[in-house]
Amino acid sequence: xxxxxxxxxxxxxxxxxxxxxxxxxxxxxxxxxxxxxxxxxxxxxxxxxxxxxxxxxxxxxxxxxxxxxxxxxxxxxxxxxxxxxxxxxxxxxxxxxxxxxxxxxxxxxxxxxxxxxxxxxxxxxxxxxxxxxxxxxxxxxxxxxxxxxxxxxxxxxxxxxxxxxxxxxxxxxxxxxxxxxxxxxxxxxxxxxxxxxxxxxxxxxxxxxxxxxxxxxxxxxxxxxxxxxxxxxxxxxxxxxxxxxxxxxxxxxxxxxxxxxxxxxxxxxxxxxxxxxxxxxxxxxxxxxxxxxxxxxxxxxxxxxxxxxxxxxxxxxxxxxxxxxxxxxxxxxxxxxxxxxxxxxxxxxxxxxxxxxxxxxxxxxxxxxxxxxxxxxxxxxxxxxxxxxxxxxxxxxxxxxxxxxxxxxxxxxxxxxxxxxxxxxxxxxxxxxxxxxxxxxxxxxxxxxxxxxxxxxxxxxxxxxxxxxxxxxxxxxxxxxxxxxxxxxxxxxxxxxxxxxxxxxxxxxxxxxxxxx
Length: 517
Prior knowledge:
Low-confidence stretches: none
Radius of gyration: 25 Å
Largest sheet: 9 strands, mixed
Structural class: alpha/beta
Distance between the termini: 59 Å
Number of strands: 18
Strand content: 15-25%
Shape: globular
Mean pLDDT: 94
């Protein structure tokens, strides 16, 4: 495939090598292989379910050991809130063209919008919206007058008002309190002060944001910093980063040729949340908590979330200590006795759920030790898993790796061949799903940071069909942050209660009881 000098200049400006671009184009042509599931991860095998005594033990491990370490919370927050308001936008555009037609008929078409108007005063942003409405010389009434629907939607979604349709989720008012309402960004600061505060009262949080929103986040933090630090007896150290343009992926037309804009330039698209592995890879901390910006609770429900985060971190520390001791032992002992090797093998298979490939037992003594060392000396993540009650999301499975071994993986539906009856049955037998509540250890037993890019599976990307300017195209996402990007990590799954999972995917999710006062 030939590229012009202008193309090469464009690649260079994005920090992309030509080899990366060619690999991405070849991915479109060959497709990504399905992951082969071995079995679902369950309480019987693959998921730890702690009793009260164990929960207390691991929480105390974190309090006694973890608080002395460098703690960091990592919050992906670059997503725009536009998808939250999809139905509201559709209704608003129809209203602008309705020419006085009865709005009641329109609301039957959009039940989600009707729910918004029926419970408008239950939203944390209600008072701000009401003030904007009244500043237009209007008198607000409840129930809402149908003649006011169009203006209210405009004030909620567009720049004339709150501009929520163009804002990041992190800066939307999520929860109502007696004194004031809080954005999800502020709620993460509050939550971080409870589980991510070291023994010097320092709370470090890293948010990944879109470049067009970074100054808005900085202003919000500057406005609230002093108040929250005093209220929470904490000192906040907040960092922001943006998704690197070098993680963008090329778009192609339906013939798998580069999709070109009208000016001849090649279209590149963001590589999905898997691109944030680059951001995570630059962070330096002993324990890193990961949680999405929209998964947050108000104060009254926070205790369970904080308790289990401490528990997950305590489990991480216990497993790390065991792994590090084994690795130091291998450093100091040239020829471990047979019983010690068998102990290492049992730990890998029973505690880390890593099953060796066929032919492992035919390996030489040295080859077995090399295999064991390689599997132990990896980043570690402890992932909370919730009993599946119908919520969408990837799930915990044991899956086959490229080297023939089997290990715990977070798997998205797009990675599974649902046309294969055996694979479909494994999915149907699964009991839990992934709420993205992860605690990571990204340093080795000598205290050196791992290069996380070496532990991802590049063959776990995803291809989707999109359109631009009326033309069809294919887009490519990088391996997801908690599935393919962490494919070669040591993984521990722990059951966490459903009350720790409170995502906001649509505006009406804010009306769920767990987001109400």
